[in-house]
Write a structure and sequence with these properties.
Layout lengths: L1 H22 L35 E3 L9 E10 L4 E10 L2
Antiparallel strand pairs: 1-2, 2-3
Length: 96
């Protein structure tokens, strides 16, 4: 009886190993798809270590060279009522 169980367990184990070896097979994938849109080249803009001071007019730049200013760098003074102090908030906005 014990010998039949060992034989049965060994055949089940071998069957599982065979199924694993046969079913875990990767097919070579061919990359025939091309990207829909190529990545644009990166353009770096030198801001020249520009300093934006508190409550001073900020500045804006034209990123995509269409004649409109796209990025605006500004600061705001925000009053903190609990600490009784003014804090500087830096904002960067983008217009489409």
């Amino acid at each position: 009886m014990k010998r039949k169980f060992i034989s049965w367990a060994l055949s089940v184990f071998c069957g599982i190993i065979m199924l694993t070896l046969v079913s875990c097979k990767k097919d070579k994938q061919t990359d025939s798809s091309t990207p829909a849109m190529p990545h644009p080249e990166i353009e770096y803009i030198n801001l020249g270590n520009t300093i934006i001071k508190a409550d001073a007019p900020g500045f804006s730049i034209d990123v995509n060279h269409d004649g409109r200013k796209d990025l605006a760098f500004i600061t705001l003074l925000v009053g903190d009522h609990l600490d009784q102090v003014d804090k500087i908030q830096f904002l960067i906005t983008y217009s489409n």
